[in-house]
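User: Please predict the structure of the protein below. I'd like the answer in structure-token form so I can feed it into my own downstream comparison script.

Assistant: Understood. Taking the following sequence of 249 residues as input:
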Amino acid sequence: MEFAQRIDWASAGWEGLAPNVGRVRLPGLDCTSGLVVGEEAALLIDTGSSLREGARLRADARALLGAHRRVTHVALTHPHFDHVLGTAAFAGVEVYGAVGIDALFERGAEGLRADAVRHGVDPDAATEAVDILVTPPHRVCGEWTLDLGGGLTVLLANIGPAHSGHDLAVLVPGGPGGPEIVFCGDLVEESGEPQAGPDAAPHHWPAALDRLLDLGGEDAVYVPGHGSTVNAQFVRAQRATLATRFGVS
């Protein structure tokens, strides 16, 4: 697939994964955000741990896309603070999350704030972000396709609960000669051991990784929520580790 716009990912400090797909590792918690660009729309994947990070991502996107284009869609891979608290920086976008994330945000906003502060976010910044927390109006049950224009259709797949109660993966199809790209959220982590907090469903986690592998296939690039991109072999090895850790097959 050829895109009219050439994106200079490196100019904004991003890693180009394909001509129309890039990602950045945010400082501090090493959280990944991704950007997928079609001819008519642009999808941001995860928005960082504060409004400041969200504003940084918005500025990056403006620099990458040009003055006359903007982020039109946001997908939240799961409802942990470091992936969602920057969403309010993107006014007027269509926001997607796994079904049930709305109820969680309604009853668990204070928990998000407490987690953010515990991990080093300034208390006032955490309070500000939680006060204007964006609840995704589009909740994905099963699979949802987004047409970004130019023949690019991205798949959002609800494959949780696993790392959290509401895990969403994003599959970007490969172009000519290029691999498919799977944004995994924290279902996969490379820079540290996968974290299983109180909202995790560890007995379902290995099966969720099986689903990721089914989506992407053997040659896909898998983008963890934290760390460097990995391949299918890494995902299978992490699946085996989690199965042993949690005593499931």
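That's the full token string. The CA atoms of residues 2 and 175 lie 8 Å apart.
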